[in-house]
Description:
By secondary structure, this protein is α+β, with helices and mostly antiparallel strands. Helices cover 20% and strands 41% of the residues. The chain contains 6 helices and 18 strands. It has an 18-stranded mixed sheet that branches. A hairpin with a 4-residue loop joins strand 13 and strand 14 (208-211). The radius of gyration is 18 Å and the shape is globular. The mean pLDDT is 96.
Amino acid sequence: MPEANEVHVLIVDAFTSERFRGNPAGVVLLENAREAHWMQALASELKHSETAYLVPEGDGYHLRWFTPVHEVDLCGHATLASAHALWETGRLQPEATARFRTRSGILTARRAGEDWIEMDFPAEPASPVAHGDVPKGMLEALRATPRYIGRNRMDYLLELESETAVRELSPDFHRLAATETRGIIVTAASTTPGFDFVSRFFAPAFGIDEDPATGSAHCCLTPYWSAKLGKKEMTGYQASARGATARVVLRGDRVALIGHAVTVLRGAIAA
């Protein structure tokens, strides 16, 4: 356990049951709130796509998420990792629900059998955007010709013509970083058995060329594919180099994000 002048940190791979797949997140377990600049500096040091900071508060925890360069409003994989860390370290009992106060309201997570973790998140549907209204140079930087473009409060959503097109996409990240948005979701219906849709997520403006697994993107993907496929329950595959699987359920204006998590490293840092 950390000494009095140290802070407990875990590295957890989320949306996977295998180490070194899914998306790694730093989870920093604090006893008291710390300054934003300290949290940002540590996130930059750890260099994961997201680092989560947890502080006990009331009947739950105050949760904040930082990329290496920015604080963000919503992050699924680091929330999944945070809930896993609370149960694994004994801060929460196995049957207890994890409650988080965040920039996106109250989020909860519970164990859902067979080592699955189910999170309750807001749906973030995208509204259609005309091709002529997208940021200048974005489509050229993506090197893609989408059949649909949408946008929600955080990201752009682009549907491509096929799973192969999504998997083979090779953006110009330097040019894409000039796009004024948190991230860009590309997606297509899946032809791989066991999956309903595939996706990838790019956020170079936020210090992440490609995110290995993005829970918040599935808050947009779920209502989109639910309407197209006529299904409430689906399974998505994020076709990054590490690969990640998310089960999703649309429940009105909420989305259940269901995935696995596995601890890779436990340690402490100087406070």
